[in-house]
Amino acid sequence: MYDLLIIGAGPAGISVAVEAVHANIDSSKIILLEKAEEHSFSIKKYYPDKKLVTANYKGFEAKCAGVMCIPDLTKHETISYLDKAIEENNLRVNYNETVWKFHQNEDKSFIVYTDKNEYHAKVVAIAIGILGKPNKPDYKIPHTLKDKVLFDVTTTEMVNSNILVVGGGDSASEYCQYLVQNGNKLTLSYRRNNFSRMNEINRASILTLKEENKVNILFETDLISVNDKEGKPAVKFNNDRLPEMKFDYIVYALGGTTPSNFLKMIGIEFDGEEPVLKEHHETSVPGLFLLGDLTAGKQGGSIIWAFNSARNAITKMRGDYI
Predict the structure, then answer these.
(1) CATH number, residue 206
(2) Band of pLDDT at residue 13, cut at 50, 70 and 90
(3) How many domains does the chain have?
(4) How much is the pTM?
């Protein structure tokens, strides 16, 4: 019987485990389950190497409430900080393991079933984030273009290529900033007429790239189809004035989605599209907590938000369940 089982080994999952250790919970009674082959996989996959991991993000105050805290760091520095947290607190992380289902016993403890094992725990924290499940377009993408239509900029090296980036948030701007450095020709398609979702730095950066003719911005455009033309993606827009355009790559930066089906399946109540959360990020299921992005709403949170949500949750776990 574990005291605390954590699903997801990103910043939120790691930090709640660290908070638990500092609250005098033995590290041998804590386990993290991660479906990827390494921790913080979303940061490693979706963040370009030169992108700063910012403490203050989308207006959230960068004020740390608990044990873990970072200033603005590089991707490498952030990963090193999390590596050290795992090592110094003797945390056990089981990688390449996917949770299939839950069961809550009469005594309110949990049985968690994975593709490899089953676990018993007093408390469960879900810290799986939203970038691990990126939003995808409604139209079909030809299977033949699977290596040309991407949802990140780190898995495929793109140099001196003609690239379409789709989106209007911070990730879209950051992808463009990163891709420009590799000599790529960039077009950015966004369905609205201004970048209201971006922070000030990213908005200024993308507009500067436009002024320097390094990014062609197509406002008020939506893609309606993507087809394979001689091995390259050819796109049609909802704007009749725009011809069909062919690119070497398409990169979607549409954000992520809350894994609502999974959360509903294990009994968490929802209010519309958002999970119902009580004090300290506890769900409608006693002893089951959500952390990180899952507690921040549609706009998402920061790493500091993840750290602080862990601190907030552990006070309830330690007081009522462990």
Answers:
(1) 3.50.50.60
(2) very high
(3) 2
(4) 0.67
